[in-house]
Amino acid sequence: MEVILIENIDKLGKVGDVVKVKxxxxxxxxxxxxxxxxASKENLKVFEEKKTEIExxxxxxxxxxxxxxxxxxxxxILIIRNAAENGQLYGSVTSKDIAKxxxxxxxxxxxxxxxxxxxxxxxxxxxxxxxxxxxxxxxKILVNVAKTKELGVEQINEYKNPKKTKSIKKExxxxxxxxxxxxxxxxxxxxxxxxxxxKEEITPxxxxxAKKEKTPKTExxxxxxxxKKDEKLKKTKKKxxxxxxxxxxx
Length: 250
Description:
Elements: E1 2-5, E2 18-20, H1 23-30, E3 36-38, H2 41-49, H3 51-72, E4 76-80, E5 88-93, H4 95-106, E6 115-116, E7 121-123, E8 125-134, E9 137-146, H5 149-160, H6 174-249
Parallel strand pairs: 4-9
Antiparallel strand pairs: 1-2, 1-3, 5-7, 6-8, 8-9
């Protein structure tokens, strides 16, 4: 749906702009709140006729918004809620709850849709919430959700002045030192055993590799040598036998 803006609206535009919006958003919110007019020829004529009046009203709204921003800037509001031991609320804190607290404290005209709360608050703690007071004017406040006023004061003080956790070193007793030594000795012994086992695993592998590389060569060489020796021996035996037979014949 196309509409004519009759006031400045964040993320939509300024007075007089013709913009497209979702039908539901226009029908359920923008038109009932008198923030826009349907973009028709008749309404465009009406807008042009009353443009000066509309702009004057918008200027007043801007001035009021600036005053509200000054009042609520840096505001701290306390909301009391029941909660479980783990800090989880029995229910939640919504933008409407925050708006009520702001209105009751400061007596200002305030709309809950101006509070930029993405999710409702469901646990105890201090939350920084951004509020769009006007189109280009935003302020931040602190929302303190606590079980009681006293706890709320503690929470806000801790939030503003966070304590640095100091590491406290305790002096070790004689027994503790002895136990630590025993543990260290056990660990050292285990480490030594592991190192020895690693060395034993590594060294045999090297030896076996060396043997595998060397033995084939030596076996071949030895084999050739032994064959040659056997052949020589056979030849010498034959020669000796021949000589023996010759002498026997004589």
